[in-house]
Amino acid sequence: MEHEMRAEYEEGVPPHVDAPVRIWHMVRMDGTVAMCGKPLDPAAATQSADAWGTPQGQPFCKTCGAIYLREHPQDTG
C-alpha cells in the first residue's frame, strides 16, 4: 500500500504555503484521515513517505509512526 505524509496545522490556521506545520501524519495515498485517526484538511501540504525519519518529516506523529512501522517493518527511517 502506498503512503504519503500530510501536514496538520494549528487549530484555526488554514493550509497555505507559509503556514507552519504543527505535526506531520502518515496517510494512505491521497487520504485525508491520518493512520492515527486524525482527520486532516484535504488542502494540507503533503510529502513523500520517504521523508519519514528525516529532518523534513519532523515533527512526526508517534502513533502514525508506530502504525506505519507495523505495515512497513523494513522502513526504519
Protein model, in words:
The structure is a single chain. The protein is α+β, with helices and mostly antiparallel strands. The protein has one domain (3-71). The protein has one helix and three strands, in the order βββα. Strands 2-1-3 form a three-stranded antiparallel beta sheet. The longest helix has 10 residues, at 62-71. The mean pLDDT is 90.
Q: What can be said about the biggest beta sheet? A: 3 strands, antiparallel
Strand order of the largest sheet: 2-1-3
Q: Which strand-content bin applies to the residues?
A: 15-25%
DSSP E strands, number:
3
Whole-angstrom Rg: 12 Å
Binned, the helix content reads 10-25%
Structurally, the number of domains stands at 1
Global shape: globular
Query: Which structural class should the secondary elements be placed in?
Result: alpha+beta
User: Termini separation (Å)?
Assistant: 17 Å
Order of helices and strands: EEEH
Low-confidence blocks of residues? none
Q: Treating each run of at least 4 consecutive H or I residues as one helix, how many helices?
A: 1
> Average pLDDT value?
90
Q: Which helices and strands appear, and what pairs or packs with what?
A:
Blueprint: E1 3-9, E2 21-28, E3 46-48, H1 62-71
Antiparallel strand pairs: 1-2, 1-3
At a glance:
This protein is of the alpha+beta class. The protein is built from one helix and three strands; from the N terminus they run βββα.
Name the descriptors.
single chain; 77 residues; alpha+beta; 3 strands; globular
